[in-house]
Amino acid sequence: MAKRVTGPEIEKLIQLLAKVPGLGPRSARRAALHLIKKKDQLLGPLSNAMGEAYDKVKICSRCGNVDTVDPCTVCTDNRRDQSVIIVVEDVSDLWALERAGALNAAYHVLGGTLSPLDGVGPNDLNIRGLIERVTSGGVRELIIAVNATVEGQTTAHYITDQLTGLNVKITRLAHGVPVGGELDYLDEGTLQAALRARTAI
To answer: For residue 66, what is the DSSP state?
Structure first.
């Protein structure tokens, strides 16, 4: 058994940091040590910011985004086209699309994907809220921007089935060759999707 080299407070900090995605035990130890060395510049302000976030962060009751206000900043932005809703799996996907800045639309966060093997059904996701937003009117297009996985495809098909008969255009993100991608390095599934989604030039 390894000898203990720090007190329980530092060990707890390391264990909590190790639970952050992308940080394993070694990275968590390095991060904790860096924070401790920069106690006044980093650890204190980080502690305050985390406490404030814990007190103020909310889930938007309309779209599922995280913010400090409800409805969130995205939902209350009058410059956005509220008639176009981009459906994403997670808040991180919403943030990624916002960084791209390709479309000034509204969003809807599902909170995951359908996965019967993991026990995730329609009632475990924010699908009912999406259907209510569409049926209440004013939505002309729904862009399903879920990951190109089996679960993502299943979720997309389920949502499409639920909205059949409603006067709303349903589209999906294109799948295929990424910008800067070389054909020789792409997998067969990506190449097949690219050929199926080919467009006129």
So the answer is: E
Q: What's the rounded mean pLDDT across residues 146-162?
A: 92
C-alpha 170, offset from chain centre: 20
What residues are paired with 58 via a beta bridge? 67
Measured in degrees and rounded to the nearest 5, phi and psi for residue 174 equal: -70, 145
Both tokens assigned to 93: 């996907």
- Retrieve residue 178's tokens: 């990424």
Round the average pLDDT of the chain to a whole number and report it.
90
pLDDT for the residue 47: 93
Angle at 74 between CA 69 and CA 78, to 5 degrees: 110
Domain count within the chain = 2
Give domain status of residue 145, yes or no.
yes
Question: CA nearest 63: which of 14, 115, 133, 11?
Answer: 133
**Do the domain assignments include residue 140?**
yes
Instruction: Extract the tokens encoding 20.
Output: 């952050």
pLDDT at 1 over 80: no
CB-CB neighbours of 91 under 10 Å: 18
Domain membership of residue 195 (yes or no) is no
Contact 158, 152 (CB under 8 A): no
